[in-house]
Write a structure and sequence with these properties.
binds threonylcarbamoyladenylate; about 325 residues; DHBP synthase; Rossmann fold; globular; binds magnesium ion; 4-stranded parallel beta sheet; 2 domains; 11-stranded mixed beta sheet
Length: about 325
């Protein structure tokens, strides 16, 4: 395997089974600075050794990121996360309440932080997540160092909830993908910054805002503080974007539309839609999040001119879905 050169080299992407042999192979690849996509319960991540700046640079090359956003470091235990970041009382509560799980904490980097500067985009804070997925946990425990992992898709595109999505975007640009089927949660982690007295929601995600606020016993601050700049999420206005145009809150379809439905909604002209998917016929927002990115990809693959999306309630995981939809609909 040749890792010389600064661009993502063309190479064979290995498909690894989610068993001890596959995980061993993934660990070997990470240890020599390679890139391995792996499942978490939210979406598939594109993993690299967080302590190795050359490996981290390969992530940006493979994804064709327009700029170096800070990445989330994944850890096998809360104890390991505490070595990387300084936890205040709010961070302690959130880690106790939601880890392992779909929550990322942004905390001041500890003096001993091993996540390299490039992965932190030069910030004095660090984003930390302890995932729940069994394969992710095994990989992290065996590797023994933090693994940075953005979603394993080309920059700006739809996040991958299946290994097939990873391969469709990144085949030949990454060393391997650990395949364990479809992810459960379906949208990325909720990101909360604990950098000062006010914990702040940087990105809605797999843990509903209301659950986070209940655990904290207070409301989350709105938007990043100055300390949390540059802001979190695919905060680029246009993000999570399919090829097709995306129209939101649609009640009436136009010719050539593919349609994304929720619950029992029946927009006018539904019978003329060239394709349709229902995120959750029974109106369950958790099921809808699980299916969201996969459904967007499937509708996009029909070649439809536009994807029309019916209104989706903004409660629970609906906040994360609507956040992704607004970015997907942004002019680009
Ligand atoms: O569910 C997830 O969070 C997935 C899985 C693979 O863990 N990962 C993911 O990573 O969505 P990514 O790179 O697509 O999004 C990470 C976000 C970025 O938008 C980045 O701006 C924010 O986390 N972030 C990372 N470090 C930060 C920091 N120190 N301060 C503020 N925001 C930060
Ligand atoms: Mg992403």
């Amino acid at each position: 395997m040749n890792h010389s050169g600064s661009t993502a080299a063309t190479r064979q992407t290995e498909r690894l089974a989610p068993d001890p042999g596959g995980i061993e192979r993934a660990v070997e690849i990470l240890a020599r600075g390679g890139l391995v996509a792996f499942p978490t319960e939210t979406v598939y991540g594109l993993g690299a050794d967080a302590t190795n700046p050359e490996a981290v640079a390969r992530i940006f090359a493979a994804k064709e990121r327009p700029r170096f956003n800070p990445l989330i470091a994944h850890l096998p235990s809360t104890e390991a996360a505490r070595r990387e970041g300084v936890f205040d009382q709010n961070a302690d509560r959130l880690a106790a309440g939601f880890w392992p799980g779909a929550l990322t904490l942004v905390a001041p980097a500890s003096p001993a932080c091993s996540v390299c500067d490039l992965a932190r985009a030069g910030l004095d804070s660090v984003a930390l997540r302890r995932p729940r997925h069994r394969v992710a946990q095994d990989l992290l425990a065996r590797f023994g160092r933090p693994v940075v992992a953005p979603s394993a898709n080309r920059s700006g595109g739809v996040s991958p909830t299946m290994a097939e999505h990873v391969v469709a975007d990144l085949d030949g640009r990454i060393d391997a993908v650990l395949d364990d089927g479809m992810t459960i949660v379906g949208v990325e982690s909720t990101i909360v910054a604990c950098l000062d007295d006010t914990p702040r929601l940087l990105r809605p995600g797999g843990i509903p805002r209301a659950d986070v606020e209940a655990a904290l016993g207070r409301a989350l601050g709105v938007g990043p503080s100055d300390a949390a700049r540059p802001r979190a999420p695919g905060m680029l206005a246009s993000h999570y974007a399919p090829r097709a145009k995306v129209r939101l809150d649609v009640l009436r379809l136009e010719p050539g539309d593919a349609v994304l439905l929720f619950g029992a909604s029946k927009p006018q002209g539904l019978e003329h839609a060239i394709a349709s998917r229902n995120l959750s016929a029974r109106g369950d927002l958790t099921e809808a999040a699980h299916r969201f990115f996969h459904s967007m990809r499937a509708l996009d693959e029909t070649g439809a001119r536009a994807i029309a999306v019916v209104p989706i309630p903004d409660e629970g995981l609906g906040e994360a879905i609507n956040d992704r939809l607004r970015r997907a609909a942004e002019e680009r």
